[in-house]
Amino acid sequence: MKILFLGDVMGRAGRQAVSDGLPKLRAAWKLDFVVVNGENATSGMGLSAAHARAILEAGADCVTLGDHAFDQKDMLQFCEAEPRIIRPLNFSKSAPGKGARLFEARGGRKVLVCQALGQVFMKRPFDDPFSATEAVFRTHPLGGQASAVIVDFHCEATSEKMAMGHWCDGRASLVVGTHTHVPTADAMILRKGTAYLTDAGMCGDYDSVIGMQRDEPLRRFITGMPKERFSPALGEVTLSGVYIETDDKTGKATRIEMVRQGGRLPPAGPAPIA
Amino acid sequence: MKILFLGDVMGRAGRQAVSDGLPKLRAAWKLDFVVVNGENATSGMGLSAAHARAILEAGADCVTLGDHAFDQKDMLQFCEAEPRIIRPLNFSKSAPGKGARLFEARGGRKVLVCQALGQVFMKRPFDDPFSATEAVFRTHPLGGQASAVIVDFHCEATSEKMAMGHWCDGRASLVVGTHTHVPTADAMILRKGTAYLTDAGMCGDYDSVIGMQRDEPLRRFITGMPKERFSPALGEVTLSGVYIETDDKTGKATRIEMVRQGGRLPPAGPAPIA
Amino acid sequence: MKILFLGDVMGRAGRQAVSDGLPKLRAAWKLDFVVVNGENATSGMGLSAAHARAILEAGADCVTLGDHAFDQKDMLQFCEAEPRIIRPLNFSKSAPGKGARLFEARGGRKVLVCQALGQVFMKRPFDDPFSATEAVFRTHPLGGQASAVIVDFHCEATSEKMAMGHWCDGRASLVVGTHTHVPTADAMILRKGTAYLTDAGMCGDYDSVIGMQRDEPLRRFITGMPKERFSPALGEVTLSGVYIETDDKTGKATRIEMVRQGGRLPPAGPAPIA
Amino acid sequence: MKILFLGDVMGRAGRQAVSDGLPKLRAAWKLDFVVVNGENATSGMGLSAAHARAILEAGADCVTLGDHAFDQKDMLQFCEAEPRIIRPLNFSKSAPGKGARLFEARGGRKVLVCQALGQVFMKRPFDDPFSATEAVFRTHPLGGQASAVIVDFHCEATSEKMAMGHWCDGRASLVVGTHTHVPTADAMILRKGTAYLTDAGMCGDYDSVIGMQRDEPLRRFITGMPKERFSPALGEVTLSGVYIETDDKTGKATRIEMVRQGGRLPPAGPAPIA
Ligand SMILES: [Fe+2]
Ligand SMILES: [Fe+2]
Ligand SMILES: [Fe+2]
Ligand SMILES: [Fe+2]
Ligand SMILES: [Fe+2]
Ligand SMILES: [Fe+2]
Ligand SMILES: [Fe+2]
Ligand SMILES: [Fe+2]
């Protein structure tokens, strides 16, 4: 299967770039399944129902969230009504929606998508993501009902992400980090066949501070005194993420490529776009 | 000037790979100046005098440290005796050694190297790195005595690193992050001419948890109970960092390329090595 | 019932003071049940089996632990063999021992003791303590089998501790914080009958930095550079904790008094000791 | 000199209690100098100019702030215009106002008041408070121009506070912690004559979560999902703080008493109020 995962969509510019660019990538790379992390698509803070619909319409089969899952209050209802939304498994015991679900890809093949939140350096505490993903793997073994298993691990620390990669190795097709908004360059296939990338990066303007216009974050770092709200940067967007190919029988990855399309970052992907 | 910066050297395997590989890179890419971050070269924890010497002999013009600067106690003396060691500007008011210094590159040109520690998500608190670097820029303006200015920003958070990039933009030739041990893929030249990469990654074995053998970190994440010490992974090493070219007159960057040589990561660099 | 809870016993001096003083308090105040937090009794780091036995022999009916529960490795076995040891409910899914247990007090009455770890400002992450205690209250309702229910909430943040007090209000006889090693002065009975104190303080020498000799902690705060191990202070100890009286029928608290006996702190307790 | 320090005033109820109670305490205890921490007096978040004036009119000679110093924007100007406001020494290099100042007490004696922020467990990073206070002590030695020196150390961690106590011992008349909103019971005079209390507690309603109405903080701890703003609790207030007596010649403390007046906490103070 050919699968694309795009990292945190950042505000209006990020949404527009997904709407414009994802259909082209889908066609050019003959994608079977697409996951997009949408936790920052609405003003950089959460995801509204309307913006979730726009990302789905652009060609996402599944939209994942993150620690900002419910910053937009209508997501509390929407994630119950729209099965294509995945929130973190360990967001909170009382969170609405689901943290793992089996999706149908092109040709009727099944893809499991789940998301977990890390515990290191996060603004608020979450329960153990290692046992949370373990529970999912037990009910959805790779190469069983699920032809592919995708884990979006939303966290800050590189140590926790690499540990999660090894934890899932052989039990997931892809473990990809999100949340830091900077793509890493360590795409690899782990020992037992799991494709791994520490962070997908964001779909946003990289002439910024993690997707936000530079002035306010800089002011806060330098003076310690906030003055305005953060506001997503509106310059040219790089769509950033990861592309994998998997063996339908085993669910294991046979190829992994970093994806960076447009904007200021060095371009990458499985093949050029005409 | 052609400048190479290599990220945190990780233990014995990392040191060996630097000793073997750096002379080749120096020759192949006709490097004028090389900086290597050595804060994890000795058992993954700090840098001994002997290992610092080995990295310098391999072809580093300058070795930077980090939050682990003085984990090896003989560095307390060595960094006073050996001017090619740079410790963080804001490590502590009573730290020995220097946080910024002017070096001589090939052909007598001068290069300023400085290092600062971030404040976000670090294990212990450090003073403000923004005013620390500001003070350095005031005494060493880019394009003055210094043909190039290199800032190693040793910190965890992508937001703080991107903010530091903009803060230094036009005042440094290169701002490169270290500390997370995972290379990022966001190499770019900022608006006013500063080359920027969020993290250089490590010179270590990436089949690991940030360079440490996987078992003990995994155990701690999963069970919460330590059993053994951490021990650096000993598999094939990727030399990871960044290459820039600068204009000697202005000190600004004219080119930036990610560098990944050997090991498990996708290869990158300004040119192939014979 | 007359119940005494003593906070974190700190090293050799703390153990000695418990051995000397607890029998006197037991007699003078006609105590029915005594809980002692022992997580720092062995060199300030964890609790060995031998030192646990000493605290039990001094008159503790139950010894609780904390985030340092297994710093002494023989506690991994001992807490399975000795039912009077309680480790945190949410230490880790794979921790040995128990986080809640029903004890027998004088006259055959039953007392439930449980301990939970907080999530805010702790060195490593733990799972949600609110749902962990909820599960205990469901199986052990106050005024059912248990004549009294004692919750040791081991955490740093005053906000989390006060929230836990309200969360347990009417479901526990006592919620008492541990871990900060400084006694608070906010002893009160909450709206629905639960006695509450934010922190019990330590059984240790208060001419110290939270029970450790001052020099090394001061050095680390001032210079950022460790030089020696921490070592428990050995001066005169204050036994610090809380005394409550409960109604055996309802399990609710009818009286709460701070306890500080000996050493440098202002003395407090339900009655003078002859 | 007879000096009273009151901890963080919490919202409307706290302000009212200070206005009602402080004149009585001033008269009853014949106070020479009064400091009040006002960082939460305005809706629990910062201090407006109007509310600062009200606290000064109630009898405070000096009002200190904290990490919430500038949550109310008019304090940015007011702290420049009103010399009786002290903000943290190490709030930020660009903060308006002053972090230390010499005040005149009854009878023309001079009192130095300064405030510093801790670095451990704070929401944002601050520069080293140990060297910040050192600089103040150098220019204002105890027993020189200043008959008394008062240090408000605004921080979370008990270890950092106790270390600051020892750091200032013999150089300050009083080191008192603020910020946690829970009074500690460890009032003591340190070896070289400095009165010390880890935390003054708050002037607020203790039937709360650190002064805020319980429902929203409890919801956030239990469900992880915010619903409303925090709002200060409005029940009966305890004025909480510390009283010291000093020797005018040496500046050293001769007496320290915890102060808790009104509300739910056990009463304390140097003498009963008629
Ligand atoms: Fe995000
Ligand atoms: Fe996030
Ligand atoms: Fe490192
Ligand atoms: Fe580091
Ligand atoms: Fe403790
Ligand atoms: Fe503890
Ligand atoms: Fe406060
Ligand atoms: Fe505060």
How do the strands and helices of this protein lay out in sequence?
The structure is a homotetramer of 274-residue chains.
Chain A (H helix, E strand, L loop, with lengths): L1 E5 L4 H18 L4 E5 L11 H9 L4 E3 L10 H7 L3 E2 L13 E5 L5 E8 L11 H11 L8 E7 L3 H11 L5 E5 L9 E2 L5 E3 L17 H9 L15 E8 L6 E9 L13
Parallel strand pairs in A: 1-2, 2-3, 3-4, 6-7, 7-8, 8-10
Antiparallel strand pairs in A: 1-11, 5-6, 9-10, 11-12
Bound molecules: fe (ii) ion (8 copies).
GO molecular function, one term (chains A, B, C, D): metal ion binding
Keywords (chains A, B, C, D): Metal-binding
Organism (chains A, B, C, D): Pseudosulfitobacter pseudonitzschiae
Distance from N terminus to C terminus of chain A (CA atoms, Å) equals 22 Å
The top-level CATH class of chain A is Alpha Beta
Indicate the proportion of strand residues of chain A: 15-25%
**In terms of structural class, how would the helical and strand content of chain A be classed?**
alpha/beta
The parts of chain A where pLDDT drops under 50 for at least 5 residues are: none
Largest sheet of chain A: 6 strands, mixed
Percent of residues in helices of chain A: 10-25%
Query: What's the SSE pattern of chain A?
Result: EHEHEHEEEHEHEEEHEE
Radius of gyration of chain A, rounded?
17 Å
Oligomeric grouping of the chains: homotetramer
Arrangement of strands in the largest sheet of chain A = 4-3-2-1-11-12
Number of DSSP strand runs of chain A: 12
Mean pLDDT across all amino acids of chain A: 97
What count of helical segments of chain A does DSSP give? Answer: 6
Into how many domains do the coordinates of chain A divide?
1
- What hetero molecules are in the model? fe (ii) ion
GO molecular function (chains A, B, C, D): 2',3'-cyclic-nucleotide 3'-phosphodiesterase activity; metal ion binding
Organism (chains A, B, C, D): Pseudosulfitobacter pseudonitzschiae
Keywords (chains A, B, C, D): Metal-binding
Protein name (chains A, B, C, D): YmdB-like protein
